[in-house]
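pinned: reference chain
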Amino acid sequence: MLNVEDWAEIRRLHRAEGVPIKEIARRLGVARNTVRAALNSDRPPKYERAARGSVADVFEPQIRALLAEWPKMPAPVIAQKISWPYSMSPLKKRLAAIRPEYVGIDPVDRVIYEPGQITQCDLWFPEPRIPVAAGQDRVLPVLVMTLGFSRFLTATMIPSRQAGDILSGMWQLIGGIGRVTRTLVWDRESAIGGTGRVSAPAAAFAGTLATKILLAPPRDPEFKGMVERNNQFLETSFLPGRIFTSPADFNTQLGDWLGRANARTVRSIQGRPVDLLEIDYLSMLPLPPVAPPIGLNNRIRLGRDYYVRADTVDYSVDPRVIGKFVDVTASAQEVTVFCNGEVVARHVRSWTKHGVITDPAHQAIAANLRKAFAAERKQRAGMDRQHADGHVVALRALPDYDALFGVDFTTPSTKAINT
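pinned: its structure tokens
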């Protein structure tokens, strides 16, 4: 077969120098018909290997019969059904070629996002267990948010996947940027839209920011593919080789890494997120003058056990407000308890499970209240044994009352012994 170099030389000699076909054939040592074929061809010669059969050819009827009934049957199961005796590579190649005939083709459109249009949100659960306190370590969620236009990536670890903690994390990340996009895309996360409708806390959050929360269709991770890919990016590029001593240490290392991640060039947009963020920012909505409702919030009447619960941890409260209604507010950093607008407890938020946090000052107040209560009871008991004029009522022994009423509880054997 004529190679590309000879083909090019034939065309040059004939067209540029006017060398006859016979002379070209003599110089290059090829047949004159080969020279004529090269001159008549507008494209260089291309080697094409003759098609050979595959070991899968014999099994194709069986494969097609299985795919006709179960189009998505995995390759290992098909190999077992047809008693496949070879390596999996030829079978997988044949399945890749013929499976679309049975499952159909599902093309994906390329979506182009305008500046300030959307932010995709998701929870990522890194595998390493994070030490929290009291010898506990936990797998904690990380809130990940990605801006649609600039691909700017933000993330933070949060204490739980309850609505209040998720919304607190969102407000922290949105506040770090300084503005919010017109749409926040979420999947069917239970605290955000597990029922198929945006939950009341999430709707209140979005309403305060004048944005909206768009829920992805069920079982459709491609709907928010950008943030899903960033979850994988965090898994493969951030986690390996790192050790974390606490949630705060995790967030510190994550913040440092995000600065470098946002400075890389993203192939799909041919730019760096940190450079495109300004364009995104100018088209976003300004933040409201008041903060949206976030955090864990609860209102209860404080019982004799002067503790309130936030998440799964109990926190002590000033026992002087026992019996009154108190409002409990918990952010990722702090738990605060109010009574009639006044702070009656303030604790650092514990990320442990089923812990008890006690303020020594509350314990001391409770001890004093118990002493005062006991003294008051003793005083009241003493007042009950006095006449109206103040002198003490005499207390008689019980046998005196037995003798007075002629009651004898002694047994015959007892009388004999006494005698």
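why pinned: The chain has 16 helices and 16 strands. The longest helix spans residues 360-384.
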